[in-house]
Amino acid sequence: MHIGVAGMIGVGKTTLAKKLGEYLNFKVLLESVDADNPWLDLFYESEAAQAQYGFRLQAHLLDSRARGYQQEGSDGAHFISDTIADADRHV
Predict the structure, then answer these.
(1) Those residues with Cβ within 8 angstroms of residue 13's Cβ, 6 or more apart along the chain or in another chain
(2) Does this model's pTM top 0.90?
(3) Tens-digit pLDDT profile for residues 60-82
(4) Which of 10, 13, 26, 62 could form a disulfide bond with 88, CB atoms 3.0-4.6 angstroms apart?
(5) 16-20 long-range CB contacts below 8 Å, 24 or more apart?
(6) With the CA atoms of 42, 85, 22 and 37 taken in that order, what torsion angle do they form, in degrees rounded to the nearest 10?
(7) DSSP state letters, 3-64
(8) How does pLDDT run across 13-22, given as a tens digit for each residue?
């Protein structure tokens, strides 16, 4: 089973996912937004950079999210994530 938490940035998705994971005894899979993302710093350089790198950033996040879901779900374990793959369907 996979439970995903969706919402705008800063509303508490990660906090909710962690608390639900603890309560349900599920693994918690958090969105990776740190050093393994080559587009994040470039995206935040300027508004022009956001237009230039926005798709690449979203594609990277979608790819890492899909890989994480596949890896976590491969052993049949239940997990909860602080985002959902469907959030990127319009990219």
Answers:
(1) 5, 6, 7, 82, 83
(2) no
(3) 888 877 787 777 767 777 888 88
(4) 62
(5) 16/82, 17/80, 17/81, 17/82, 18/82, 20/80
(6) -20
(7) EE----TTSSHHHHHHHHHHHHT-EEE----STT-TTHHHHTT-HHHHHHHHHHHHHHHHHH
(8) 889 999 999 9
